[in-house]
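Hi U.,

Before I forget, here's the chain from the pilot set. I'm dumping it here mostly so it's searchable later in email.
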Amino acid sequence: MFISKSLVNLATTVGVSGAIMLSPMLTMKAEALTEAQALERLGSIPVFTITDDKGSPLLGALPAQQKKPGDPDQLLFFFLSPDDAQGMLTRVQQSNPAVGKKAQIVVRSMNEAYQVIRGNKDKTVAFQFIPSKASIDSARTILTAQGVAADQVPNVPVFFAINNQANNQGLLTMNIDQNGKKEQVVPFFLDKNDLQNLLDRANKEQPNVAKDTKIQVVSIFQVLDLMVSEDSKKNPEVDRFQFVPSRNSFEYIIKNSQQPAAPQVAPAKK
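Structure:
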């Protein structure tokens, strides 16, 4: 199991336990970063894929009933949950022992995966990010309560909090202590439970803030669109947007960090 050194550093120095304070941020504008700068924020999100011992991804076949004329023949999955990746690896080992004994989980950032997707010239391969079932279920529960149809659940949901204190609606920020330096960020969590745990902690320390706070859900790609500015004008509010991977991912990375670097992930040739 191979893990990017930058992700190991991130998991060690930040983690979801770094939150120490919550406060509402009442203004937000959608003119902040260039596309490249926004995509760099995906570098904080680990993704897990299955490869052979040389680092070439194992590709799945697109189900015949789902295939349309011109669709790719094969799929490459990027899992957002290490448990889902491990489940896939186990199925490969059981169904094809000869391949499975050389298969492994490779961890990269979502930014690296996105760059692989953008640079892919082999139109016979499709790519898919797979969030955890718990994440999808949490998003569906929130949106259903708002009257949103079940088929409108984001493909990759992220969870954030808004605060209605003093009749002013604002995004909730959190302070993190990274390498001894305190920074205020607007967190978008990949796991709703991690955000809820943060709010539960805040309720004990800042009940006047936490009591007016509500969890919302949005697509990660909508957040990226909001972060991008055509004129590259800086905006400190949107510049504070940060994605927070699940605690489960952080714990997996730390547990498996004593591994050599992996070869560059690229789609296997047919």
